[in-house]
Amino acid sequence: MQERELTLPKYGSAPETPAFAAISEAPRRGVVVIHEIFGRQPEIDRVVRRFAAAGYAAVAPDLFHRGKARCLQDTFAAMKTGEGIAVDQARGAREWLMKEYGLEEKHVALIGFCFGGGFALLAGRGWGAVSTNYGMIPSPTAMRGIGPVIGCYGGRDRIFATAPAKLKKNLGLVGVTPEVHLYENAGHSFLTDGSHPVAEACSLGLFGLGDTPAEREDGWSKILGFFERHL
Questions:
Q1: Which residues of 36-74 are buried (b: 16+ CB within 10 A; e: fewer)?
Q2: pTM above 0.90, yes or no
Q3: CB 94 within 8 A of CB 105
Q4: Which helix (H) or strand (E) holds 170?
Q5: Which domains, and CATH codes, for the chain?
Q6: What are the angstrom distances between the C-alpha of 185 and each of 155, 225, 229?
Q7: What residues in the chain have per-residue pLDDT under 70?
């Protein structure tokens, strides 16, 4: 496995963007990883490494390098249209994977967690597959043209309790049937192994944060299997 700290070149409306990548030997598939609301954290780097260990070329752009407030403002605006600077940052990361490792667009997936879970849906048009995990659900208009979608949610995450049903409803309106998994014993961020006690305290326990290794590993097996079938 090769690891790289890099700066992605400008792409469309997106400026140069710092990123972290991990690459397997002779990768046949690629994935762009979108971080949580906490930004780039060690657990997101571990997600990138997990994909590389599974045979992928994986890269995680730092969407908050321009400032979290500005990026969130751009992204929430894009929730209505599926376009914007942050969306072009993800596309630029895909373009880098394709050029560097000879991958076709249909062989590159987009995955996001928390903030990134909603982002993956709004930016998912034209990707080989999309994995959304416990995030906001954009409008049907913003998701029109999206490819195959898998969604994973924790049953103890009361803030996003309605997200699975809303995902099915909104994607159904644009002709897509997502594969949705609900883990009753898991909370928010169960697919990553970070510790965010301040976030848990501020949410008054509504996120249901906590380490659930069995649910995490089962969720990852579902995501990797889905990508293998569709990429």
A1: bebebeebbbebbebbbebebbbbbbbbbbbeeeebeeb
A2: yes
A3: yes
A4: helix 163-172
A5: 2-230 (3.40.50.1820)
A6: 6, 22, 27
A7: 79, 194-208
